[in-house]
Specification:
With 610 residues, this protein is α/β, with parallel strands linked by helices. The protein has five domains: 101 residues, no CATH class; 88 residues, Threonyl-tRNA Synthetase, Chain A, domain 2, CATH 3.30.980.40; 229 residues, P-loop containing nucleotide triphosphate hydrolases (Rossmann fold, 3-Layer(aba) Sandwich), CATH 3.40.50.300; 33 residues, no CATH class; 64 residues, Arc Repressor Mutant, subunit A (Orthogonal Bundle). It is 47% helix and 16% strand. It has 21 helices and 18 strands. Strands 5, 6, 7, 8, 9, 10, 11, 12, 13, 14 and 15 form an eleven-stranded mixed beta sheet that branches. α4 packs antiparallel against α5, α5 runs antiparallel to α6 and α12 runs parallel beside α14. The termini are far apart. The N terminus is likely disordered. Bound molecules: adenosine-5'-triphosphate. The site of adenosine-5'-triphosphate has 15 residues, from α11 and β15. Adenosine-5'-triphosphate binds next to α11 and β15. GO terms for molecular function: ATP binding; DNA binding. InterPro entries: AAA+_ATPase, FtsK/SpoIIIE/SftA, FtsK_dom, P-loop_NTPase. Keywords: ATP-binding, Membrane, Nucleotide-binding, Transmembrane, Transmembrane helix.
């Protein structure tokens, strides 16, 4: 009778669970039959919320440990301190291996020091001797708040809870018997390694993607499945919770330290990084005005300037508007057609000298290192070069055909690389890496990416935001939408000044060729060490004079402005500098009280007070 009453109660509880949701409502009573249910429910709740409860569990175990140590081994406190120091050291040393960011490592080290310090003090004087209880309470709360608030931890817990239901999910979608082996949570979602049940294939799982998205409560199109090459019964499930392309993706700094590593340009839609090698390869960046070409060049420069085994030269016939901010890291910057022509002619001299040196040594390719750096020439708006410096284009053509093996390569940006805009030469056909930002017309797709690409599904005319692009390269042969990282002007400035002191010098073979060109008009003469040193010296005068010209033009324009002031557009025209540069200068002058804003967007200089 009693037994049937408690069964009745349990059934009633179960009904309540169904009615009120997942969390069982436990009615406390003195009925002993309910005890196991209560204990199980508490244990489950403790397990489920173990991450949130971690601060309490840590505090409780500190007190327990201190009680034991104080009673039995009070003189062992130095051992506690030593273990603490070792643990803090391990966190510092193994930070990367533990996948901890700097701030997380600092937190972990601080908490470990707090726990160890308190426990050793409690070992000596007892955990309940003032002020230790108060110190524990205050320290516990202070340490727990960042833990509870930490976004990455919360995301990990949420994913763990979701994956705890994997057996049910797998059963529901038709992959019964598969198991989760590991899961990794990142900024954009999570990645799960799944062991498939006997006889199941990755293709079976791919067919269940829509069902999986539904069962995991993800948005449509959020899940991707990839095979694991070495095991047919394993797969990797990627769930993207935040669309990486929804907003601009900030650049977090260079990802490489050598040109032999692939540069990282941005992220694909599935949040995997876009990596492409520029070693001994020419690159073409195309797309309409405002589509993000300069952004891509900035990212490329951010990466390349971090490499001490590459020398960078730049050609920017828009008076250096795009490349000037990087000038301290560019060994040469040409801003006029004449400078462009001589820069490319010098590059050919280097190319030929290197080719001769390689042939002499019986080598096939130039392996860049800090003593023998690669040379990359960035050309912003190639079409301007074609219009203004036809001779330079002939040199560029030659570099495009012969530069790869000797690591003298081009990165050219242009709005529409038609035969005319590319100077009817071989340059376009020699480009191994192609980045297509948005193009205006469908036929422009093939112009940038190559014949037949539009038909094969490379639809860069449908890209819908600045910075989005398609990448075609030997290691990227399927069209996947990507977005470049966005580097703001401050980052450009900071990165350029950080990297500038570490730029390499030209190798002696190349410097000797340059010296010979300067003195004899061709590149095969013997040069003294002093000559070489002079030839190696970066020629950054172009930069300084262009900036000074702009500063002077700006100041004169402001000073001579009429009483209603001069507009931003006019200032942009007279300085030929970028908008951010102009705004920065205006702010500096205005902060110093030298100029004033007469009305919205119109400025003028103050008359000097004597
Ligand atoms: N990756 C990106 N994410 C978000 N916004 C971007 C990105 N790249 C560029 N933009 C935005 O688009 C604007 C134009 O970009 P950018 O100057 O790179 O275009 P462009 O193709 O070089 O144009 P132009 O040919 O006129 O120089 C930038 O001011 C920036 O606000």
């Amino acid at each position: 009778m009693r037994r049937s009453t408690s069964r009745h109660r349990i059934r009633r509880n179960a009904r309540q669970v169904r009615r009120y949701g997942a969390e069982p409502i436990v009615l406390l009573s003195d009925d002993l039959d309910l005890a196991p249910l209560v204990i199980t429910a508490i244990a489950r709740a403790l397990w489920r919320y173990r991450s949130e409860l971690a601060p309490f569990l840590t505090t409780a175990s500190m007190v327990g440990t201190a009680v034991l140590l104080h009673d039995s081994a009070a003189d062992h406190w130095p051992a506690v301190l030593s273990v603490t120091a070792a643990a803090v050291g391990a966190v510092v040393v193994l930070r990367r291996w533990l996948d901890l960011r700097l701030i997380e490592a600092v937190y972990a080290a601080a908490v470990l020091a707090l726990v160890g310090g308190w426990t050793s003090a409690a070992t000596v004087i007892g955990p309940f001797t003032p002020p230790l209880p108060m110190a524990l309470a205050v320290g516990g709360v202070v340490a727990a708040v960042p833990w509870w608030a930490h976004r990455r931890r919360r995301a990990r817990v949420r994913v763990e809870r979701k994956l705890a239901a994997w057996p049910d999910i797998a059963h529901a979608v038709g992959l019964a018997g598969s198991r989760v082996q590991s899961a990794l949570v990142d900024l954009w979602g999570y990645r799960v390694r799944v062991a498939l049940a006997r006889g199941q294939t990755v293709e079976d799982a791919v067919a269940k993607i829509p069902a999986l998205e539904s069962a995991l409560g993800a948005r449509r199109g959020a899940a991707r499945i990839q095979p694991v090459p070495e095991r047919a019964d394993r797969m990797e499930l990627r769930v993207i919770e935040t669309d990486p392309h929804a907003d601009a993706i900030g650049w977090t700094g260079p990802s490489i330290t050598s040109i032999t590593e692939p540069v990282t340009l941005g992220l694909f839609e599935d949040a995997t990084p876009v990596r492409v090698s520029l070693l001994r390869r020419h690159a073409l960046v195309g797309g309409v005005a405002g589509a993000g070409k300069s952004g891509a060049i900035n990212v490329i420069l951010g990466e390349l300037t971090a490499c001490p085994d590459v020398i960078i030269w730049g050609i920017d016939l828009k008076r250096g508007m795009e490349l000037l901010p990087w000038a301290s890291c560019l060994d040469r910057l040409a801003t006029t057609p004449q400078e462009a022509e001589s820069l490319l002619r010098d590059a050919i001299a280097i190319l030929e000298a290197r080719a001769d040196a390689l042939a002499g040594d019986g080598l096939r390719v130039w392996e860049p290192n800090p003593d023998a750096p690669a040379l990359i020439i960035l050309i912003d708006e190639y079409a301007e070069l074609v219009d203004e410096a036809p001779e330079a284009v002939r040199h560029a053509d030659s570099i495009a055909r012969r530069g790869r093996a000797v690591a003298v390569t081009l990165v050219a940006a242009t709005q529409r690389p038609s035969q005319k805009a590319m100077g009817h030469g071989a340059v376009r056909s020699q480009m191994d890496v192609r980045l297509s930002f948005r193009v205006r017309e469908q036929r422009d797709v093939d112009l940038i990416l190559g014949q037949g690409m539009l038909k094969s599904g490379w639809h860069s005319h449908t890209l819908n935001a600045p910075g989005k692009f398609l990448l075609s390269a030997p290691e990227h042969d399927i069209p996947r939408r990507a977005r470049t990282y966005l580097i703001d002007d401050h980052q450009v400035q900071r990165t350029a000044s950080t990297h500038a002191p570490h730029r390499p010098l030209l190798d002696s073979i190349s410097a000797s060729a340059l010296h010979a060109v300067k003195t004899h008009g061709h590149g095969h003469e013997h040069s003294s060490e002093a000559d070489l040193q002079q030839a190696r010296e970066p020629d950054r005068n172009g930069r300084h004079s262009a900036v000074q010209d702009a500063e002077t033009a700006l100041w004169e324009a402001l000073w001579c402005a009429p009483s209603e002031g001069i507009s931003i557009d006019e200032l942009l025209r007279v300085t030929a500098m970028s908008r951010p540069w102009l705004y920065k200068r205006l702010k500096e002058h205005s902060d110093a009280g030298r100029i004033s804003q007469v009305s919205r967007g119109r400025w003028r200089g103050y008359p000097t007070v004597n």
